[in-house]
Amino acid sequence: MDSLLNYGDLKNLEKYLVEEIRLMKKNINSLEDNTFLMSTVNEYLEILKAIQHLMLHFEKTIEK
Question: Does residue 48 fall inside a structural domain?
Answer without folding.
Answer: yes
